[in-house]
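Much of what follows relies on a compact textual record of a protein's fold. An example makes this concrete, so a full record is given next.
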Amino acid sequence: MLNTLTLWNVGGIRRAELSFGPGLTVITGESGSGKSSVVRALELVAGKRGVAQLLRAGEEEGGAEARFLTGPSQTFSGGVYFEGLDGALQPDGEGNLLARRILRENRSRASLQGMQIPLATYSLATGRLIHIQSQFAQMELLDEGRQLAMIDSCMPAAVHEVAVELRRAFERAQACDRELRSMAGRRAEVERRYANANEVLGLVRRVAPEPGLEARLEGELSALSRRIVQRERAHMNLDRLSGGLSEQGLLSCVRGAFESLLELLPDERRRDAQHAVSEGLQLLEETAETAGSALEGKEADLQEQERLEARLGALRRLKRLSGAGDEDGLLAYCRDASENLEWLEKSYPRLEKLSRESRELKKRANALAMELRHGRQKAAAALEGRVNALLDDLAMGGAAFEVRFKELDKLRRGGADEVEFTLRSGQRAGRVDKIASGGELSRLLLALQLSLSDEWLPPTLVFDEVEAGLGGRAAVLSGLKLKELSRRCQVLLVTHEASIAALGDAHILIQRSGGESQVRLIEGEERVREIARMLSGSPDLEEAQQHARTLLEA
């Protein structure tokens, strides 16, 4: 519960320090005295965004600090009070220390246990500690999520377990579907990107690509082509020298020519010349024969050329099919293709398992949703009975509170239901906001709070003039129910209604003096005078004071 509140430079209050106890604490004062400033400070503590308009005129900064006491019954299992928050942000032996600071530049700071934290994190903590209900808080009656949460809070533990199991089954089914969608996307991408992968990998085994292979093959082909051209030219020249079956070669022509010329020489010189010519021609023939034997292997060269061209062509086709710019890119593609094709093959069993698990989980979730619906309907009927009994006590005996269920076409994490709070009054029936007045909505919300479990209530509830629109018996009855509520949690009430203020276990008065708001706890005659003022407008009127004493004694 809230133990102390310190505020400075908020609204019309320069500085105030308030202490609170259990039960019902009422806060009163003339209009414009500064009650709203206290409420604004409490809203800051509760996590509302701070704006410069809240600052006292002429001040550059202001804020509020509150200490909340926590007891063992308010601690979650495992000793964690604020679920999801760091251990350093958990309460110490003295409770929770919350602080908000706002600056003129429309900036604000939030801290928990003395540590500055983001406002969103801060609000997670304050939601467990305090709730502020203004004249417009009944609007939460129109929020379908809050309505369903109210119904769920009335369900027995066994039905809550059904809701937990439903949520788990739904989330697991969603996880299966997400993985299925992810796998389907990856499978499509693998099939698109590696559509030619099987052909590529087959060619890879033939080509055996390696870095620099294309340049090396081109170089080998170029050298081999030059050698083949040289061989062709040499063969042609050798054929010219030796001749063929139908033609004489150059060597035969030379031999014949020399024989004709040698006939012209004298006998003594002819023999020497014939011998020289014969030796020369024999040398030429032997040289031609030797060169001819060296030209063997033409077929092997052509076969090697064909092999190199086939390998180079296959390599270039590989690069086109894979989209790789070089051998390194081709090798990387092959590695990725092997891995992804292996994954693709192995994904079939996983795909079938996930599809089967998703179907089973959805079937289980639907069955649990039907069971949860039945439990909610029973809880709603019980809540209707409790609320309607309380409405009689709140001077709304002619109205009947009802919960209507709407079945959803699509299953959600929280089930397959939506609820709508309705009110029947005389011949009129419909949504609560269409039938009830502002005062009736306030009393209906109070009846709901009294009807819900203690777990639904925060340790501290703040009511800001919720009796607005009420009067007479309705106001008194509402006050009595607020008193009843204060036995279950700490209740702080800002009120203008004397009959309600007289019910408080403690009374805080806010007065304007010297241009500043003064805040103090009042008791005894001072409290009598304040309630007399609330009754008649004058604290000194004897009849009003007597009425005030009667209210306090009652």
Residues 327-393 form the longest helix (67 residues). Residues 72-78 have pLDDT under 50 and may be disordered. The longest strand covers residues 399-412.
